[in-house]
Structures are given as structure tokens and as C-alpha cells.
Amino acid sequence: MALLMWSEKYSVGVKEMDSQHVTLVNILNELHTAMLKGQAQNVADPLLKNMLEYMQQHLSTEEALMEGAGFPGLAEHCAEHQALRAKVEEYNARFKQGDITMFPELLYFVRDWFVNHMQQMDKKYTAWMNERGIC
After folding, report:
1. Which pTM was predicted?
2. Residue 71: helix, strand or coil by DSSP?
């Protein structure tokens, strides 16, 4: 059972960002599936590392795209991203200390943050980007 199913309602109208969002959803679901099967401890390290690396890559790409387009909400958006990075690093530190009980918290936190962020913050740049030919 998937933790989050991609839907067009999450689309931000920018193909590259939507593609990366789909990949993030898939990575999140892989980690969730492993946790449900009781395999989180065995496969968590590479999956968590993959999720953190891809998330960082995505956030950096999104920020660069907004900066290049002169998006006026960039500072606020970057602050949201920084808060996410800090919280996810807290979970990663717990994992590195041997705390595997953090997985459900991490997964639900990332899912909820992701859905809310896509539907509220990311959609703020849709018209701005599209008006500048970034679709």
C-alpha cells in the first residue's frame, strides 16, 4: 500500500518539478513499503540516503529555477525548504544513532509536508514560471 499516490492535483505546472515530485513520491513509497514489510532496518540506510540526496537535489533545482525566473517569493520559499532540510536532518541523526523508531514519524512528516508544500507554496510559482515560458 502506497503512502502517497501521485495525482495531477499535486502538479505545479512545471514539467521538471512535477517529474522530480513524482520521483520523490516513489522514493517515499519505497521506504514506506520496506517499513511495512519489517525490512526498514535492513534497507533503510540506502533508501534514506537516496531520499535525502534526491530531496536536496530537488530543492536546490527548484530554488535555482525560481531564482533564474526572478520569482518574488523566493526568500519565503527558501526558508520553507531550509526548515524541511533541518527537520529531515534531525530524523537522519536519530537514525544514525540507531533509532529506527523514527521511520513512521519521518515518513508521515515528509508526506504531509510535501503535500502541503506542493499544494500551497509550490503552486504560488506556477503562474510566474508559466508566464516566463517555464512550463
Report:
1. 0.90
2. coil
47 and 34 Cβ atoms separated by less than 8 Å: yes
In angstroms, the Cα distances linking 99 to 21, 23, 33 are 27, 26, 18
Q: Which three cell numbers stand for residue 44?
A: 533503510
Q: What is the pLDDT of residues 84-126, one digit of tens each?
A: 999 988 988 998 898 888 888 988 998 999 899 989 999 999 9
DSSP 3: S
Half-sphere exposure of 57 (CA within 13 A, CB side): 12
Query: Cell 515560458 sits at which residue?
Result: 133
Q: Which of 59, 60, 57, 44 is nearest to 94 (CA)?
A: 44
Q: Output the CA torsion 61→29→10→78 (10° steps).
A: -30
How far apart CA 71 and CA 73 sit, in angstroms, is 6
What is the set of domains in the chain, with CATH numbers? Answer: 14-125 (1.20.120.50)
Give the residue among 14, 23, 24, 34 at the shortest CA–CA distance from 132: 14
